[in-house]
Protein 1
Amino acid sequence: MKMGHVVVFSLLLLVLSAGLINIADASENRLEGIVTDHQ
């Protein structure tokens, strides 16, 4: 049972980190678009 929990936990961590990276990329692109619009 514990091995299963470890696998599920690591998968959740992978999904969370991937989501955070995607969010960071999207916000960076949004900020760059705002900056270029104002120039």
Note: Residues 20 and 26 are 10 Å apart (CA to CA).
Protein 2
Amino acid sequence: MRATLEVADRIGPDADAPVADKAVATGALLVAERMTRRFGGLVANQDVCISLERGKLHALLGPNGAGKSTCINMLSGDLPPSEGTIRFMGRDITALSAAQRSQVGIGRSYQRTNIFPQFTVLENVRLAAQSRRQQPWRIFSRAMQQQWALQKARACIEEAGLGKRVDWTAGVLSHGEQRQLEIAMVLATDAQVLLLDEPLAGMGSDESAKMVEVLKRLRQTRAILLVEHDMDAVFAVADVITVMVNGQVLESGPPEQIKASVAVQQAYLGSEDSFHV
């Protein structure tokens, strides 16, 4: 724990920080520069550059095998890049593990729901809140710690749109509600950057619509990277879209630019006539 806290302290803002933090000045929280990942002779990602800004939802699209999972795994710390630099609030975090990145404000959800089904919604989120190691409440009594964690959990549950399910057992929630619960758990860690891996997968139209509304609320105060196959949802909520093909960025820009791109139409689905939103 001490090592984690020391690392977190080193990457925090300081008075003699270099002025190279253009990303911070423009609102970018997480910036990846020329990220490359090799697995032996296979290049899964090559020279990927991506910038996640507070107040914007950045979608990552691409066909299967395009390198999206590798990209989000490097950003979250689950996979170290072979080359390149990752900065959070202007500080180099390339060498930090996923656990260390979580402590400094980068939250991640996965394709498979990661909850405690036997616990209530409130208990799941409370545990996530208490996992945050750098909290002022640690100097207070255990009772005060519990109270703080419960208040934090309830606020995150409301923000994730699950206020009416706070006392439900997580295992009886619908698939969509379980994904909302997982997001609430990420919020409870005070994440400023949300890396969401296919949060709408397996949802019906009603659940997808609810999740889109949740994402719209969350992006107001955070930076979000969304990896998703639901094209309608992506174009309904994204501010910026990056399209990857064969481990490289093909094009990046606002949704209108991506819709109109002949290169995206040809590369993403194979023909100009097959890319419809």
Note: Strands lie at 28-39, 42-53, 57-61, 83-88, 91-92, 106-109, 193-197, 223-227, 240-245, 248-253.
